[in-house]
Amino acid sequence: MPNPPVKPWYREPWPWLLMLAPLAAVVMGAAMVVLAVRSNDGLVVDDYYKQGLAINQTLARQRRAAALAVQVGLDFADGRVVATLEQRGARSEAMLLTLVHPTRAGRDRQVLLVPRGGGTYAGEFAVPGPGRWHLVLEDADRTWRLYGLWEAGERSVRLAAEGRAGE
């Protein structure tokens, strides 16, 4: 009885099936390397100890805003943000509004608000993208600080020393 002809190895399904798992691991590993190189890990900081110490200064500025009873109304429209300061003792030559993305530090934005008179401040503003943003509003001298949340697309937000006071 003659032996059946032997097929070459590459014509058999088993070697290909056995090579599929290591090949998939190599492809996924390459994809992970590309993702790691292209994305910014904004959660890791070099000076975590200094930032930990600075939290006391931040809390002191929030307490100062509460003591002054600072309230600010923010209106977002037509590429501008207008802030109305509702506390006379807290006047400032300018204010700095920081929009902080919850997870991506590279998407954070800062807007300088300059006085327009009558307790209002204005600055150029480009909508940073969809989602919920953390707002940090400080006076130019960094003596007080307000914090709040803003959903992209909302036209107005009211900030108070306790956080978001309403709309």
Mean pLDDT across all amino acids: 83
In whole angstroms, the N-to-C terminal distance is 92 Å
Question: Helical content, roughly?
Answer: 25-40%
Please write the CATH class name of the largest domain: Mainly Beta
How many beta-strand segments? 9
Under the CATH scheme, which architecture of the largest domain would be assigned? Sandwich
Order of helices and strands: HHEEEEEEEEE
Kindly give the count of domains: 2
Share in β-strands: 25-35%
Strands of the largest sheet, in order across it? Answer: 7-6-3-4-5-2-1-8-9
CATH fold description of the largest domain:
Immunoglobulin-like
Written overview of the protein:
By secondary structure, the chain is of the alpha+beta class. It has two domains: 9-38; 68-166, Sandwich (Immunoglobulin-like). The protein is built from two helices and nine strands; from the N terminus they run ααβββββββββ. It has helices at 13-38, 48-68; strands at 71-77, 80-85, 95-100, 109-117, 120-124, 132-139, 145-151, 156-160, 163-166. The chain has a nine-stranded antiparallel beta sheet with strand order 7-6-3-4-5-2-1-8-9. The protein is elongated.
